[in-house]
Amino acid sequence: METKTAKLLDGKALAEKIHHTLLERITNLQPEIGRPPGLAVLMVGDNPASAAYVRNKERACAKVGIASFGKHFPTETTQAELEDVIAALNQDEQVDGILVQLPLPKHLDAVTLLNQIDPDKDADGLHPVNLGRLVRQEAGLRSCTPAGVMRLLAEYKIPLQGKQAVVVGRSILVGKPMALMLLEADATVTIAHSRSHDLKAITQNADILIAAVGIPGLITGEMVKPGAVVVDVGMNRVTDPNGKSRLVGDVDWESTSGVAEFLTPVPGGVGPMTVAMLLQNTFASYLRRLGINNDE
Question: Is the pLDDT of residue 171 over 80?
Fold first, then answer.
């Protein structure tokens, strides 16, 4: 008997498509406007994972023609110094998007810093004003990871209206905005988390299951409704007995791929979409600040 394998939701391929569209639009607009869109990524300290993420974002900017105003600060940089930098970037006409790379060293207050960013330059979509706009279904910059998931579901023409969607995870980065975006698309949404009783009973009801909790392999095949769409937001680095490390998601691929109809790979699923949405947000901010209609 032939074993059914889930179809891939290929975030890497869709991100490439978005990059191509952005490059084309920026190339066409730049002669008329006289400058490219600009993104400033602020990084403090020497966290190797953060450094890799920042390099990845800067490479992606270069690929589509967005100017990168990356600023790398020593670990001992003070809160006041960073607040001054953000204030200057808010006023800088060359900068359309500002991002603070998390986590920050322990002596810094990340929430206060993020709140200093001009909401219309908030490339990560995490400012309380932008989260409020999402709650009110008003136009605004959206959180990159959940926006990337929604774009991926749209690309594969996955219907959401009236469907049972379960989001496992309630972070302000992914879980909460993800639930709001699904609700906006007329899905019936349940939020589950690490303290939910009988998680399996909840996830087995999901037509659309989003795992965003940061626990490797938490979601197994027996927790998935046959034919469900499973989106794995987890990015966990695990080390095997031989000392080799690899990235795995929150979903156990082997047991789930025979049950789900669609499944995102890790890596190559949601990760590339997050960066693509960061670029998209920066471009949207550029257009808005110039009074140009965004027909993307």
Answer: yes
